Amino acid sequence: MAARPVLNARLPGGTTFDPKTAAAVALAVMALAGCTASPNGAAPEPSPSTGPTTASSAPAAQRQSSTAGGTRLRSVHTSAIMVDDMKLQLDRCHERTLDAAQGLVLPDRACTPGAIDPAVTQADINQTICKSGYTATVRPSAYVTGKAKTASLAAYGTRPSPTIEYDHLVSLELGGASSTSNLWPEANHAGAKGTTNPKDTVENAIHKAVCSKQVTLSAAQKAIATNWTTAETVLHIIR
C-alpha cells in the first residue's frame, strides 16, 4: 500500500509544520532576493534587472543616441565622373539665405546633404588632397556635370547666372564627391563678377589646416557640410 502524504506534521515543541505554508514562504524569500522560480528544481535565474548595463545590453534607442546627431555624410566614390545618387524634384529645394549681400547662403539639407569619397582617408591625405594637382585629377568636366547642373537649378528654382557656381558642398580639396547629393547651385555675393565666392576662401583655409595636421579630415568635412559659414569658427581656424 502506498504511503499517504503527510499534510501536517507536529514538530518538537508543539509547532505544526505545513508544507504549503513553507513553500509560500520560500517563494516570497526568493522574490525578495531578486530570483524567480525555475521548473524541475533548476537553479533560480537572476532577475533581468540585475547586473550592470553595457553598450550591448542597453536599449536600442539608447545605443543609437551614441551615434546620433551631427551631420551624416553620404559615401560616394567618384573619380572624374558624376554620380547621380539622388533624384531631385522641380522646385522642391530651397536655399537658406543668411546674408544675401555677403553671399552667405546654405543649401537645402534634404536636397544636398553632402557626400565624401571613401577613397580619401586621413591616412592618405599626403597622396591625395594634399598633393598638388589632386583636384584636377578628380574633377568631372563641365560637359559631364552639365545635365546635372541643369536639373539642380530647376530643383532649387534658380535661374542660370554667370555668377552661380555649381558647388561641391564638401569641396574636392577636402575629399568631397562629385555626386548629386554633394552639388548645388551656390548663389554669389552682391556685385560678384564671376563664380569666385566667399565659400572658396573658407575651403582653402580649411584645406590648409587639414594638410598641416591642425584639423582632422573627418572634422573638416562635417563642419563644412553642416554650415560652411561657421566652419572655421567650429574648427578654431584663424586666418
TrEMBL record:
Residues 1-42 form the signal peptide. The keyword Signal applies. It comes from the Bacteria. Residues 38-74 are annotated as: Disordered. The keyword Signal applies. Keywords: Signal. PROSITE patterns: PROKAR_LIPOPROTEIN. Residues 42-68 have a biased composition (Low complexity). This is HNH endonuclease. It comes from Raineyella antarctica.
